[in-house]
Amino acid sequence: MLRGRTRKLAVGQREVKLMTEIDQAALDALRMELSGRYGRSESITSGELSSIVSENAEANPRTRAAIKQLMRETSMPIIGNNAGYYVAESNRDVAEYVMGLQDRIDGIKERQRLIMENWEQTQERNDDTARSTLSEAEIEAIEDDDVLEVSDFEATPQTATDGGQPEGSA
Questions:
Q1: Backbone phi and psi for residue 150, each to the nearest 5 degrees, phi listed first
Q2: Sign of dihedral through CA atoms 83, 88, 93, 98?
Q3: Is pLDDT of 136 > 70?
Q4: Other C-beta atoms lying within 10 Å of the C-beta of residue 60
Q5: Is the pLDDT of residue 165 over 70?
Q6: Are 37 and 86 in contact, with CB atoms under 8 Å apart?
């Protein structure tokens, strides 16, 4: 079965169990199960493999961790895809798998680029909103301060022209 250790992560300071070690009996059983599964037609699902790795039948992250550990410790070229896991039997199997991995890497990089661009645009809009709700004197005071920035302040409702009361207050 899978053994792990607990570590606190900086983000959110929640405890996360790191699944870094698979016991030898589970690895041996996993190796035996996969050793006869050459080619896509012989694949086995992660759900089927998870019962070997963990008591939890839905333990796909644990199954992936076990597969990686098995690949590190053996010379088995294990392929995992939507059909399940199997041992590569040809150069074509490996080439197709590596191309698929590269496509996934490219997709992740694209999402990474998009989230960063979108976040920067959101921050710029927030700066513009904060600027539009601050008086000129407030903006000047903030710009003159070496520590404060306009983006440090949340936007407040626009003041109405009828006596300076914020909208919705009476």
A1: -55, -35
A2: positive
A3: yes
A4: 16
A5: no
A6: yes
Give yes or no for residue 22 having a pLDDT over 90.
Answer: no
Token representation of residue 10: 């900086």
Write out the two tokens for 134.
């601050």
Q: Which helix (H) or strand (E) holds 16?
A: strand 15-22
Tell me which amino acid residue 126 is: N
Render pLDDT for 60-112 as a digit per residue (tens, 0 to 9): 788 888 899 999 999 899 999 888 999 999 999 999 999 999 999 999 999 99
Quote the Cα angle for 67-73-76, to 5°.
65
| Residue 71 CB neighbour total at 10 angstroms | 12
Residue positions counted in the chain: 170
**Structure tokens that stand for 143 in this block:** 């710009």
**Per-residue pLDDT tens over the stretch 28-57:** 999 999 999 999 999 998 888 888 877 665
Q: Which of 61, 31, 25, 55 is nearest to 44 (CA)?
A: 31
Torsion sign across C-alpha atoms 97, 116, 60, 47: negative
